[in-house]
Amino acid sequence: MKIFPAPSWMPHCSGLLFALFASIATAQNSAGVEKFDPNNFPGFVMEEVVVPVPSEIFSVLDKLGEPNWKDEVNELIIPNTSNRTELSLIFGLIVAEGFVAVQAQDKQAIEDIGREVINVARKLGLEKPVSRHAKSITDAVQQDDWKGVRREFDQTQATVRAEMQRMKDSDLAQCVSLGGWLRGTASVTSVISKNYSADRSELLNQPNLVEHFINSVTRMPQTTKNNQLITAISQGLTKIRSDMNVPRGVFSLEKTNSIRKTSDDLLALILKTKAN
Amino acid sequence: MKKAFLKPLLLCCTLWLATVHLAQATVDEAYDHTMEAAMPYVEKGYTVRQDYWNGEVESGQKLALRHQLFKGNDYVFWLGTANEDCKIEISVFDSKGQPVHMEREESDFTSTVRVNPPNTGTYTIVFSVTSKKDRGVTWAISYGYR
Question: What is the ipTM of this complex?
Answer without folding.
Answer: 0.78
